[in-house]
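testing teh design pipeline on a random one, pls ignore if ur not involved
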C-alpha cells in the first residue's frame, strides 16, 4: 500500500512539473550587463587595419599597418551620438615577404611618401544605424596629405562593463569595412588604363577589427 501511495505522489509531482515547465521556460532572460557610456581607448593588441588592392586582376594583394591608435566616445543608448578618431602610422606598413626594396618603394615618392605625410587620420562626422548592431559611420579620412569623406560599414560585436578579469576596464568590439579610391588621395601610380587590369587597382578595400577599453593602456 505504501508503495502505491509513493508512486501516486511521484506521478502527481511529475505532472505538476510538466505543467509548469512551459511557464518556467517562457520567463524572460535577464539582460546581460552593458558597457557604460564614456571615453574608450584603442586596444592596440586587438586591433588590425588591413587593406587589399587588385594585382593585375589575378589576386588581391594584401597588407596591413602595425601602429594604430584611437579614441571612441561610446554610448550604447545613443549610438548616433558616438564619435571615433583614429591615427595610423604609414611607416608601419607590414608586407608579406616583400621583394628587396619593395617596401621602401611604397613608403617613398609616388606612393605613401611617409617623409612628407607621416600620419593618416580618420575622424567620424556622422553615425547612421542600419540594424540592431550595425551602422554606417561617415568621416573625414586624411591620406597622403589629402582629406576626403569615407564611409565605413560597422558592426558592433558586443561588450561588457568593468570586471576583475580585464585590467582595461569595460570593453567593446567592432568590425568595419570600407572602400576608397587611392587616386582621390593623389596616389595614382600603377593604376591600369581603362579596360585593362595591367597594374594595381584604384579601389582599396579596407577591413578593420578593433576593440576599445575604458581605461587607457599603461605606458
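output:
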Amino acid at each position: 500500500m505504501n508503495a502505491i501511495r509513493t508512486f501516486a505522489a511521484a506521478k502527481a509531482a511529475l505532472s505538476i512539473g510538466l505543467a509548469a515547465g512551459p511557464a518556467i521556460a517562457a520567463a524572460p532572460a535577464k539582460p546581460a550587463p552593458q558597457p557604460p557610456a564614456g571615453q574608450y581607448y584603442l586596444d592596440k593588441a586587438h586591433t588590425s587595419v588591413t587593406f587589399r588592392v587588385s594585382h593585375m586582376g589575378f589576386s588581391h594583394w594584401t597588407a596591413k599597418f602595425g601602429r594604430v591608435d584611437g579614441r571612441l566616445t561610446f554610448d550604447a543608448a545613443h549610438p548616433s551620438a558616438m564619435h571615433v578618431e583614429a591615427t595610423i602610422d604609414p611607416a608601419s606598413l607590414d608586407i608579406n615577404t616583400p621583394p628587396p626594396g619593395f617596401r621602401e618603394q611604397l613608403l617613398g615618392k609616388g606612393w605613401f611618401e611617409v617623409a612628407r605625410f607621416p600620419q593618416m587620420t580618420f575622424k567620424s562626422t556622422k553615425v547612421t544605424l542600419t540594424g540592431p548592431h550595425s551602422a554606417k559611420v561617415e568621416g573625414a579620412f586624411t591620406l597622403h596629405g589629402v582629406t576626403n569623406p569615407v564611409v565605413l560599414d560597422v558592426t558592433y560585436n558586443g561588450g561588457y562593463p568593468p570586471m576583475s578579469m580585464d585590467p582595461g576596464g569595460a570593453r567593446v568590439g567592432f568590425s568595419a569595412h570600407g572602400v576608397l579610391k587611392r587616386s582621390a588621395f593623389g596616389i595614382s601610380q600603377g593604376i591600369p588604363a581603362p579596360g585593362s587590369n595591367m597594374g594595381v587597382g584604384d579601389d582599396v578595400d579596407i577591413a578593420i577589427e578593433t576593440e576599445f577599453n575604458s581605461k587607457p593602456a599603461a605606458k
